[in-house]
Amino acid sequence: FLVSMPGIDEIWAEMKTQAKPSSSPNRNKCGIGDLGLLSRQDVMKQDGSNRLIETAELKEGLLDPKFLSGRNLVISASPAIWTEGAQDLQEWLSRQGGLLASEDASTRRSSLAVIHQLAQDPRAQAPLLQKIWDVVHVPLLQLFSDTVERCRDLAVRCVLSLVDVVPSVADALHLLLPTLVHRIGSSPPAEPSEEVRLLLLLILSRLVALAPKAVGQHMEGVHAILDAALADPYPLALQEACGCIVLLAALHKAKLRAVVRYEETRAGTEPRHRYGELIKAACPLIRHKHAKVRVSAVSAVGALMMLGTKNVGLVEYLVAWHLPNVIPIWQFFSGGTWEDGRLVKPDERASEHNYLALLAQDPSPQVREAFMGMMIEWMTGLPDRWDHEMRLLPYLLNGLTDSIGGLRERAFEAMERLGAVHEEERMRNDRDRQELIDAREYGHKAPAERNSAERWRTCRHEAPFTRRPRLGARMLVRNHFRRLCPTLVRELNAWQERTGSMAVQLLYYLTLYAEYWVTGEAVPMLQALVRCAGRSIEGLQGATPDPAARQQLRHVLRCAQAIGQFVDPAVYLPLVLPAVAGELEVVWPEGQVAVLGALCKGCSPAWLRPHALVILQALNSPGLYAGSARCACFVAAAVPPLLLAAA
Length: 647
Fold this sequence. Notes:
Largest sheet: 2 strands, antiparallel
Number of helices: 31
Distance between the termini: 105 Å
């Protein structure tokens, strides 16, 4: 059978005349050595005019990069059947090199199609592909700059297929990486085709995975490619760039920690590391319109942040933090200021964004889930995580307010995991160890602690708070409650409905964690809750009640009930009773009565019993019902727990 095969010259003569592929039933049984049959197998996509389909026409059929050829780390290859002599193989390879350098675009495309088909054939053995690579890799790299898009596409696909199976691909990195830098390492890139840029990035990812040590010696070029790729308008290219960054973060930690430049700041000259520059380049993708791109950006930023040991500057950049008493000088001049020898106007400056806040409020559940995983990884794994607890904790607690029940459960479990880490770290610290031991052994003897334990056993809370949070999580929130509470109290009555709703929900969950530690902030919290309840009740009046006002009133009363569970009535009754009894002029009497009823509903009967008669006398004030008939409804809701306590 092999003796009767046509020669190489006859094969190429048939290809030049564009003969149709053979329909022989033995066509799929040929060996690798049968170049005549192999060159005619699936080289051209046939249509009415028997022509090649261009890349522009194949855009709709482009698959996810994970399914493109050359993506897998391991390709199983069956033994190749090469029976022709070495001289014939060398002649064929030399001919391919000459065809790749041809001035005729169709000739180059035909040769590229043959090489691509051979590189993808699972029966091809590594020695054969190595010989092909040694001869054609330089012409293939030269075709990366071909004027015909289809030729560039096929050349890149050939390299992508050969990279996986050629053992000595690392020896060609001195040619491969500069070629990639030339094509996609600048902004705007020299490569105009989106699909070809994606394939070039796939080559970079394969090189990083297969030859990590060799790629580490060319980190400057890799950084340039990724920096430009993160500004690419093609979403799939952005995803692949973020995936390559995650791979680099796992394989080249020391290289990414290298200092790339120095910057003058208020604190003096500070170094800027490579991973920090990549984080700033990836942050704009957090605002991308595609959710998959945002998920990829979260994974890239999260992996890069774990490389640093001092991340204060990067965390401040992510949350757009600046000193409240420091105002940039350019804000005083509407015409702009001179910087580095040129006039920079205010509208030319890049706007700052709180990227973590954008991720916490992202409309996609997948993005919020990825962001939650990134937050718990940072707060449990960063070397300097104690410096960032105050800034990162609110974003993790914000997951408890998510509209998806599964994400709320995950946020609660994340807080439990963080609490376990907090307890473990305290046990390793001599100063904090005794505090933790005392809380475990003697905390249950305190009256407030006994009341909290009784309230968790008696009262039912909405999911995910079906059980009491662990001690470490409660201690962590208590440490930062006095700094978080004033901000939430200010935002409770914000004119934006969503801001007020999120603030009261987060205040409720903070109360469940802090428990009786909210006593110090109970007065300003109740004042804000009364005001918010009064505004919500006003929104319910009229022919068309506002559904948002009804929901906000529910959140306010739930928060007030949680405060009543853990705070002694002697703390808040001097504030609420004079307004309810009519001794003070108040703007929203309905809000006072509604909040008082919620406090009494949550309070323990043992704590409420000494004050029950005083509260009932205040609710019996004649002037309380004259202003509004709605007050009677809230009074009726407040009376049952008082009667139960007084019995």
